[in-house]
Amino acid sequence: MNDFPINYKVAETTIDKLLKFFKKSTIRGYCKNCPNFQKVWSCPPYDFSEEEYIHNYKFAYIIGAKLNYSDIREYVDKLICNSMDNIHISTDIYYKLRGIVDKNMFSMENLYNDSKILLGGKCTLCNECAREKNSPCLHQDKLRYSLESLGFEVSSITENILKDKIIFTGDSLPPYCLSIYALFSKEQLSTKELEMQLTSSVH
Q1: Using CA atoms, how far apart are residues 81 and 75, in angstroms rounded to an integer?
Q2: How many CA atoms lie within 13 A of 82 on its CB side?
Q3: Which of 8, 19, 110, 135 is the most buried (most CB within 10 A)?
């Protein structure tokens, strides 16, 4: 897992421009059909206004973390030999990628004041979220949300801002796993510097 060659791409936009992709009511409808709805603190519903949270920042850095299956062919073949189907193979690789990139994102956030990262999916710190038992989050300092959980249409953001495409697993494995993160900031940052920070992080 430590030698997974993850490729990072960072694109800058403003919060005002990003709000073009804010489709809270539509996305919330999808969330209600998700098994994590009301069960994970990083997922809705929230006890705060998503709009107010977003407007705390001025700039948004959309970050694509991509892992090409051709670069981990040996690992993929191993999963296939273990009789895993395509969905389980893609899920396994997605969480391997998350395990690496989440750590890199938290490290990057620590370098920039007045910034907050958004993860590429639900929080994965605990095997079972305390919300399941109606208890407070056990890691309040590390609780982070995602673009989608706040109400953004991630597929459109990926195609229009990052100029890439999320490909879902079907009858065959996709060519890559792409997870979309973000860094919200009150100050303008360098996309090249952000990419360097992510790439140089220890996997």
Answers
A1: 10
A2: 11
A3: 8
Q: What are phi and psi of 33, to 5 degrees?
A: -90, 0
**Can you give the pLDDT of all 203 residues of the chain as single tens digits?**
457 899 999 999 999 999 999 999 999 999 989 888 899 999 999 999 999 999 999 999 999 999 999 999 999 999 999 889 999 999 999 999 999 999 999 999 999 999 999 999 999 999 999 999 999 999 999 999 999 999 999 999 999 999 999 999 988 999 999 999 999 999 999 999 999 999 886 54
From residue 155, alpha-carbon distances to 49, 59, 124, 125, 178 in Å are 23, 19, 21, 25, 11
Instruction: Output the CA–CA distances (angstroms, integers) from residue 37 to 30, 85, 110, 117, in the order listed.
Output: 10, 26, 29, 21
* CA atoms within 13 Å, Cβ hemisphere of 38: 3
Alpha helices in 82-115 (DSSP H): 86-109
